[in-house]
Amino acid sequence: MNRKNVLILGVLFIGLVLIARLFYLQVIDDEYKITAENNAYKYQTLYPVRGLILDRNNNILVGNKNTYDITVTPYEVTEFDTVDFCSIFELDINMVKEKFAEYKKYRRRVGYRTITFIKQVSASQYSIFIEKAYKFPGFSAVARTARSYPFAAGANLFGYVTEADAAFLKKNPYYKIGDYVGASGLEQSYEEVLRGKKGYNIFLRDVHNRVKSNFADGKYDVDAVPGKDITSTIDGYLQQYGEKLMQNKVGSLVAIEPSTGEILAIVSSPGIDIDKLANINKHYNDIINDPYKPMFNRAVMSSYPPGSVFKLVNGLIGLQEGVITPNTKYPCNMGYTYGNRKLGCHAHPSPLDFTHSIMMSCNAYYCYVFRALLEKTGSKSTSEAFDKWREMVMSFGFGKKLGSDFPAELGGNVPTSKLYDKVYGKGRWNTHSIISLSIGQGEMGTTPLHLANLAATIANRGYYYIPHLVKDSKDTTIDLRFKQKNYTLVDTVHFKKVIEGMYLAVNAPAGEGGTARMACVPELEICGKTGTAQNPHGKDHSVFICFAPKENPKIAVAAYIENGGFGGSWAAPIASLLVEKYLTGEISQQERKNLEKRMIETNLMQNVPVKRRR
To answer: What are the pLDDT digits (tens) for 141-183?
Structure first.
């Protein structure tokens, strides 16, 4: 066959392929026709019901309630009674005029699109609108759901749902204008699980662009798929109680189950009012202008000095490195003197051994321990010894994000030798230059979640599970990282003496100097450590970590009260009440009930300096 015939046959073959393809697309494949002739069809989005958020006992923490959006297709709107329309929805008539002026200005961009005109109208407004819908051509109602909160607690934990903005839509093509998305908290972390999948109905338009009927009797309609439920680790009643204890205080309260890393309660105070959460857009300006910053989740976002609770870490590292033993004693003459300076301490017996140094929270003892660590025999330099110390501190989870499933978690700070080289000059700093680190001050920064994790680590005798907020359930499998043990660089054997000191701090007989006597509930064997974190901007912060019971612990807690003063005054009793409530279900003794009443009713917010807008 000559070249000419081959060319003719090739052209004929290609022509037949193109004709066959066109026939298939235009005659056989209806779905293609729907896309190609899109202007002849109207798509009505069906929004899925968002998944529930349950507590660890299957109580509903976040549910749904029916609501409606009023939509408009500007192309279909003719003259209507604007006054009547505004009266139904309590709208300003000027707002309606402004919106239609905008639609007219951008009419090419708007085209035949249907746009959300009013969000989340009430059932009563919807009923009135439906009765009068014939008077408002181009307007329609779309069934939606809004969040409801049966426990009236946990707003900062759950986060909120809001309409996706332009920047988000650009990065996430699944979402369209008018879609809602989880913007913080669990709603954001588990958005893909909770959101479900949108569906749609297709309607046929006539030549005048009026909707006439369902296309193909609904053959190509797609049902919405409801979102999946998630089971949180939270105990709803404990969360409620924690928020009650923290009312009129600034700070945080975090409780963890040590054996799993599951977060039982996580309180940031003051937090967002749960009543404002479902309609966050309406209250957003008031919330962000609140000088106490209720949207700022202090439990995972505030980097605080840990104060004296950090002595536990330095003590454990000292035991591991062999610079002290449980019998090592150091003197304290109202503090630790170095050169012409002194790091002060409160009055207590002297000298003290290791266990009693925890019980009494002696500052001087841990200055000596820190000095021994940085001047350890065999270290080439202070810098080298400090790097080793830092490595061991970070094995407790400090100085980095723990990796929880809370989206806004911060990592805190453990300073580096390079920082001090920069500040003082390389080789020109020593232990006394940074002695405040011995008692959890200086450049140390930790979140309350870090401190609760420290309590859980000690309760477990040397390891922790990454704290997390969601459990395995029918619809959700948690990441394997939440099931792995994270070991510290301190041997298990050393934790026994630390725990004895924590037990004595809470349970030592009256008059023997335990700094956390107000946390004592004899039958619960609470082990704890107080902290008073120095604060250059006002009154010191009140800090306390604990776990209970002493053997086979069920709960570990950190309480951080900004400008609350001594750790034993506010943080310790608040944390102990949370422990008692969780382990026994009630506060039974009258003395403890009186303590509970005082903790709940006392307002400490006036101690916290805030910048108020004028």
So the answer is: 888 888 999 988 999 999 988 888 888 988 999 998 888 899 8
CA atoms within 13 A on the CB side of 144: 28
Same domain, 213 and 339: no
Q: How far apart are CA 429 and CA 138, in angstroms?
A: 75
Same domain, yes or no: 330 and 220: no
Domain shared by 268 and 222, yes or no:
no
Phi and psi torsions of 201, nearest 5°: -110, 145
Cα(146)–Cα(161) distance, integer angstroms: 9
* Nearest 10 degrees: Cα torsion 357, 358, 363, 365: 40
Distance, CA of 564 to CA of 585 (rounded, Å): 27
Same domain? 221 vs 241: no
Cα-based torsion angle of the residue sequence 286, 290, 295, 298 in order, rounded to the nearest 10 degrees? -170
Rg of the Cα atoms in the chain: 32
Where does residue 31 rank: exposed (0-12), middle (13-18), buried (19+ CB within 10 A)?
A: exposed
Domain span holding position 76: 41-231
CATH number at residue 95: 3.90.1310.10
Q: What would the 3-class secondary structure string for 295-326 be?
A: CCCHHHHCCECCHHHHHHHHHHHHHHHCCCCC
- Taking only the tens place, the pLDDT of each residue in 509-548 is 877 778 999 999 989 999 999 999 888 777 889 999 999 9
Q: Are residues 309 and 244 in the same domain?
A: yes
- Total domain count, the chain: 2
26 falls within a domain: no
Q: Which helix (H) or strand (E) holds 602?
A: none
Residues 6+ apart with CB under 8 A from 285: none
Whether residue 72 is found in the same domain as residue 170: yes
Give this prediction's pTM.
0.87
Span 24-35, average pLDDT:
52
Q: How far is CA 257 from CA 138, 254, 265, 396, 467, in A?
A: 55, 10, 10, 17, 9
Q: What is the residue type of 416?
A: T
The count of C-alpha atoms lying within 13 angstroms of the C-alpha of 553, restricted to the half-sphere facing its C-beta, is 29
**Cβ(507)–Cβ(525) below 8 Å:** yes
The two three-digit tokens of residue 574, written as one number: 């608040």
Instruction: Specify whether 131 is located in the same domain as 194.
Output: yes
Q: Grade residue 76 by pLDDT with cuts at 50, 70 and 90.
A: confident
Contact 136, 118 (CB under 8 A): no
Confidence of residue 36 (pLDDT cuts 50, 70, 90): very low
Assess if residue 8 is contained within a domain.
Answer: no
Of 231, 247, 266, the position where a domain reaches its end is 231
Domain CATH code at residue 551: 3.40.710.10
Give DSSP secondary structure letters for 133-194. Answer: GGGSTTEEEEEEEEEE-TT---HHHH--EEE--HHHHHH-TT--TT-EEE-SHHHHHTHHHH
Same domain, 539 and 603: yes
- What the block records as the tokens of 17 is 């392929």
278 to 88, 119, 266, 491: CA distances (angstroms): 22, 12, 20, 48
User: Which residue, chain included where needed, has tokens 């003496």?
Assistant: 497
Beta strands in 428-493 (DSSP E): 463-464, 486-487
Question: Among 467, 379, 385, 464, which residue's Cα sits nearest to residue 420?
Answer: 385
